[in-house]
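[Meeting: bench + compute handoff]

Bench side (C.D.) handed over the final construct sequence. Compute side (W.E.) agreed to return the predicted structure before the next meeting so the bench team could plan truncations. Sequence as handed over:
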Amino acid sequence: MTNRKWICCVLLAVVTLAVYSPVVRNGFVNADDKMYVVANRHIRHLNWQTAEWAVTNFSNGYPTPLTWMSHALDYAVYGLNPAGHHITNVLLHTINVLLLFLLLTSATKRAGPSLFVAALFALHPLNVEAVAWIAERKTVLSMMFFLLTLAAYGWYTRRPGVKRYLAVIALFALGLVSKPMVITLPCVLLLLDFWPLKRFTQYPFWKLVLEKMPLIPFVVASAWVSIVGQRPIINSVGTIPLALRARIAVVSEMCAYPLQMLRPTQLVFSDPLDCARMVDGRFVSRASFGRESSGVVAAPCASISAGRLVLVSGNDVSDEFDHFYGTVHRR
C-alpha cells in the first residue's frame, strides 16, 4: 500500500473516531438494548450453551447468531458498561470505512474520489443510528462481512480457484448470520463483474451467473429461516392493503431514498408501520393522525429481499437500515 493510501486511511480513521467519540458517554436505550444486552441472561457467559442459544434464538425475528455472540463477547469484556459496547460499534464502523476506501481505490485507481466517498459514508447522518445504537450491532457487523466478501471476490477473480471461492462463501455466510440484509450480495457480484472487473468481456453471461450458484443455497436458507421467524409479523400485516405495500416497495423505495441521501432531515430511529394503522378494524392512513405522510425507502436491489410486499419486518419505516435504507417524511 502506498504512502498516500496510508495517509488517507489514517485520516479517515481519525476523523471517524473523533466524530463518533461522544457516543461513549451514552447509555443503553429502552428500544431493543434491553432485549439484546441489558436483560439478556443468555449472553452472560461465553460457552457452548451460549452458542447453541444464539443459533436457535429468533427473538429479533431472524437468525443473527454471530451478532449475539459479539454481544456476549462484549459482555465478557465490558459487563454492563455501555461505553464498551458503544466503542465496539464505532470500531466496526471505522473498519467498514477503511474497507470501503480500499475497495474503491482498488476499483478506480483514484485515491481522491475514493477518499471523498468513504468520508461521506463515514459521516453521513443516515449511518449514525447503526453506530450510536448498541442494538444495531448487527448492521455494522454484517456490513463488515459484506465488504470483506467483495474484497475476497476481487481476490478470487484475479486467479480463480476453489480455495479462493471458499473464502467468498465463508465470508458471505458470516454476513448472513450477522444480519440477513446481505442476502442480495450475489447480484452485487454480478454488477462487479460488469464494472470494475469487466468480466462480461471475458466470459458469457450464463457462465458468470452459474459461477454464483454455490451462494444460492445460503440465500434460500437465510430467506426461508427469516420468513419463518417473522411469520407472526407477516400474518399481522395481512390487513394492510396490497396497494399500499406495493407503493412502499416500489414508489417510495426507488424515488425517496436518493432524496433522503441528499437531504437527510426528519430522521427517526423506529416507526413501526406508522404509514398505516388499524383503528377498530378499519384501515386509517397516517395522515389521519399527524398530517404527515411517510414512505419507506431502500436500495432497489434490496427491496424484494427485504420483503416489502411480504413485509417481514415490523419496522418498515426506520433509519436502522442505515447502509441500505433511510426514511422520508413529507409535511
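W.E. noted at the follow-up: Confidence is low (pLDDT under 50) at residues 272-308, 324-331. C.D. will use this when planning the next construct.
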